């Protein structure tokens, strides 16, 4: 037992250190600031942004959404099984209606529409905020001059900070549950295996978050504070897992966790599809190369999903 606790504490510090290092690299080095970049460096940064977009897409679909659907389905099955044992006269048709309905997809969609509603309310209160950043204007202007296809207007500054906050909150929810899963493991082998799977994709995701904050023009102080807050989420979840490792997921705790994961997945997909991908694909240069970078980031996360 002491060895298991020691391994979990080691995993806690590993998660904290990796998140801080990977998240602070794009913030601390001016090389990653796309506003000051020209020529080849700007093209490389644009392709790095596309890779991070693919990583976010893979994290949203292959990890957050998949885990949320699995958790919600498991909790629904538990509920149906418990109902069946308590009510002898319960019909099998009623049971099947419980299990056949796509509750997981519904909860993820509710998360998506919740952020859509909040952002719409925010924009309704600030109707004049429709200007884009300098980089976005140059990209969109270049597309218009060359007569090339564009993927729509880039997000406005009022949307940018809000969506950056949503991105951090949804990832933070997910990170807490990842840490909780590590903390609840009962063997050293399972703890190390799950921790390595979390570390493998967390480094890329948090690097993408740091890069996104830098390219959004976030003040360095706030960017560092955001990464620090995000870095504490997985260790916090792991510590909670250590505290409740002897208990069972009863009293609705398992269902609450599954629902929160579903809402977080829906918010994450909203930001990925309406903020990250449109921004990276807005420029007219190298569309096929950008597609390859997005696909490469997604493929890496899909590969990690084999062990996660």
In short:
With 308 residues, this protein is an all-alpha fold.
Explain this structure:
The protein is mainly alpha-helical. Helices cover 79% and strands 0% of the residues. It is built from 11 helices and no strands. It has helices spanning 2-28, 39-86, 92-100, 103-125, 134-146, 159-183, 188-215, 220-231, 233-243, 253-280, 287-304. Helix 2 packs antiparallel against helix 10 (253-280), helix 2 runs parallel beside helix 11 (287-304) and helix 7 (188-215) runs antiparallel to helix 8. The longest helix has 48 residues, at 39-86. The two termini are 24 Å apart. Residues 128-158 have low confidence and may be disordered.
Write the SSE topology.
Layout: H1 2-28, H2 39-86, H3 92-100, H4 103-125, H5 134-146, H6 159-183, H7 188-215, H8 220-231, H9 233-243, H10 253-280, H11 287-304
Helix pairs in contact: 1-7, 1-8, 1-9, 2-4, 2-7, 2-10, 2-11, 4-6, 4-10, 6-7, 6-9, 6-10, 7-8
């Amino acid at each position: 037992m002491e060895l298991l606790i020691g391994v979990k504490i080691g995993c806690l510090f590993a998660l904290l250190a990796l998140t801080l290092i990977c998240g602070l690299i794009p913030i601390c080095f001016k090389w990653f600031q796309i506003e000051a970049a020209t020529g080849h460096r700007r093209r490389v940064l644009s392709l790095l942004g596309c890779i991070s977009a693919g990583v976010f897409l893979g994290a949203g679909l292959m990890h957050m959404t998949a885990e949320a659907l699995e958790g919600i389905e498991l909790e629904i099955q538990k509920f149906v099984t418990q109902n069946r044992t308590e009510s002898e006269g319960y019909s099998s048709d009623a049971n099947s209606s419980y299990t056949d309905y796509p509750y997981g997809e519904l909860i993820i969609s509710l998360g998506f529409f919740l952020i859509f509603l909040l952002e719409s309310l925010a924009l309704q209160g600030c109707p004049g905020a429709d200007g884009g950043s300098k980089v976005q204007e140059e990209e969109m202007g270049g597309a218009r001059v060359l007569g090339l296809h564009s993927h729509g207007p880039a997000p406005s500054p009022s949307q940018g900070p809000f969506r950056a906050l949503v991105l951090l909150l949804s990832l933070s929810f997910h990170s807490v549950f990842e840490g909780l899963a590590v903390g609840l493991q009962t063997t050293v082998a399972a703890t190390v295996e799950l921790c390595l799977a979390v570390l493998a994709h967390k480094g890329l995701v948090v690097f993408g978050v740091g890069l996104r904050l830098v390219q959004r023009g976030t003040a360095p102080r706030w960017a560092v504070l955001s990464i620090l807050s995000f870095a504490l989420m997985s260790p916090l979840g792991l510590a909670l897992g250590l505290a409740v490792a002897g208990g069972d997921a009863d009293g609705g705790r398992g269902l609450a966790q599954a629902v929160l994961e579903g809402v977080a997945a829906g918010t994450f997909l909203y930001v990925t599809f309406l903020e990250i991908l449109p921004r990276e694909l807005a420029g007219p240069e190298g569309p096929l190369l950008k597609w390859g970078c997005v696909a490469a980031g997604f493929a890496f996360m899909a590969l990690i999903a084999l062990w996660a």
